[in-house]
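Handout, section B. The chain below has 263 residues.
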Amino acid sequence: MTAKVVTITSGKGGVGKTTAVANLAVALAADGAKVVCIDGDIGLRNLDVVMGLENRIVYDIVDIIEGRCRLRQAMIRDKRLPELYLIPAAQTRDKTAVSPSDMIRVCKELRQEVDWVLIDSPAGIERGFKNSIAAADSVLVITNPEVSAVRDADRVIGILEAEGKGSPQLILNRLNPAMVKKHDMLSAEDVLDLLAIKLIGVVPEDSGVIVGTNRGNPVALDPKSRAGQAFRNIARRMKGEEVPFLDLEAGDGLWSKLFGRKS
């Protein structure tokens, strides 16, 4: 068993990065994979809340690095999926408590234990970002279809390429087809033209995401959720499967024109 390490990052905060990590982890684990999530946002942890595990934290990633616990002791098992684990961030320390080499060492140990390691990167391009991408085999950049978020994502993509991480893949989050039709929101095609990287998934605007996040119950667990289905499809594409994109354009054919039947 050799895990694949994937970092999910963004230039701008508030675009749904932590929610995406939780949902992709749930989707992979529900499909039989052994998954560990690492919250890389030292000092501002939130992944534990989104996953509904905030009351079960004993140790965190800084405790592992500073030798106060073993790796296994800090891995919190999910309540619903026995092959899903979380390593939380430290809430009372800052990002200097972890170095890129520390993250590489932790991930090296995890590679022998699990199938996937998903790292939730803090927004921005400072120390926490560098820590979070250090061990990554691949990177997913998430953005909303907003000009400021796309511009920040473009900057992150350039940094990732300069750091030798190759071209990341894109998750477009919170797309509202009705707003796109009225030209009140960037379309998926607009965003792809601006960023020029491969699209791995589009997640539609869905009020159920907020409800699920507040309850610690990721929507990827809900078979009726459109956003949940989008996250499950992204997880399948991460594994190399060819999965058609959801038809978010209410049957007018635009989506299939943009991406083709096998996108």
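Note. The CA atoms of residues 52 and 215 lie 7 Å apart. Compare this with the example in section A.
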